Amino acid sequence: MPAKIIAVFNQKGGCAKTMTTMQLGGAFGLMGYNTLIVDMDPQGTAAIWSSQAEVDTPFPANVISLAPMRELMIKELKKFVRDYDVILIDCPPAIDSPIPWAALQVADIGIIPVIPVLDNVWASVKAKELAARAQRENTGLQTYFLISQMRRGNIFAACLEQIKNDPDVPLLEAVISLRNAYPESQAFGTTVQGLSKSSEASKEVRKLAKEIIEKLQMQGA
Ligand SMILES: Nc1ncnc2c1ncn2[C@@H]1O[C@H](COP(=O)(O)OP(=O)(O)O)[C@@H](O)[C@H]1O
Ligand SMILES: [Mg+2]
What we know:
Residues 6-191 form the CobQ/CobB/MinD/ParA nucleotide binding domain. It comes from Noviherbaspirillum pedocola. This is AAA family ATPase. By secondary structure, the chain is α/β, with parallel strands linked by helices. The chain has helices at residues 17-30, 45-51, 73-77, 99-106, 118-137, 154-164, 181-187, 192-195, 200-216; strands at 4-8, 35-39, 62-65, 86-90, 109-114, 142-150, 171-177. The chain has a single domain, classed as Rossmann fold (3-Layer(aba) Sandwich). Helices cover 42% and strands 19% of the residues. The protein has a seven-stranded parallel sheet with strand order 3-2-4-1-5-6-7, with helices on both faces. α6 links the parallel β6 (142-150) and β7.
C-alpha cells in the first residue's frame, strides 16, 4: 500500500501546524507506523525540533526538510510513498505560497489547525477556499478543521461553536488544548508522549491519531 499523505496547512501563522504535524507524526510512529514528516517551512522548525533528540532516543518519526524544493517536493515524495505507511507535510504559513496547493494535490487528508479566537476564524476563510479548490482537482481529498490551543473561556467556546457549525469543512472531534507539555516536548526533541504517556496532552494526541486512522481507514501497524 502506498503511504497515506496528510497535509497540515493554514495560511495563518502560529495556529499550530508544526505542533500538530510533530505530535501526530510522532503518535503514528509510536503506534508502529513507518512515518515520514516533510518539513516544507523554510524556517525548518520541524527538522530542528527532531534534531534536539538524543541519539539513543530518536524522534519517533523520520523528519526531512524539502523546503528548498518548494512545489517540486511532490515529485520527490513519489520516492518515499512505497517506503512509508504515512507521510505528513508541514506547510509554511505564506498566503500565496504554492506549497499548500501542491501538498493538497497529493494528500488523502488536509488538516487545518485553528485556534478558537476570532482572528483565526476570520483567517480560516482562505484555507477553506484553498481546500475547496483542491477538492475539485483531487476528488478523494478529505479536509477537516482541528481545534488547537483550546482553553477555558466564553470567547473560545463561542469560536469553537462557530467552527463546528461551518457548512463546508467538518471539525475533528479530538481537541488539542493549550498545555505546557506541548512546547516542553520540543526541548527534548520528542512528543508529549515521550515526556509522559499518561498526561492529558498524550491522551488528546492519541485520540486525534485514532480519529485520523479511522478517517483514512489505515490498517493496523
Ligand atoms: N497546544 C499547544 N499548547 C501550548 N503551546 C502551543 C500549542 N500548540 C502550539 N503551541 C505553540 O504555539 C506556537 C505556534 O505553534 P506552531 O506549531 O509553530 O504554529 P505554526 O506552525 O502554525 O506557525 C509555538 O510557539 C508552539 O510551541
Ligand atoms: Mg510551522
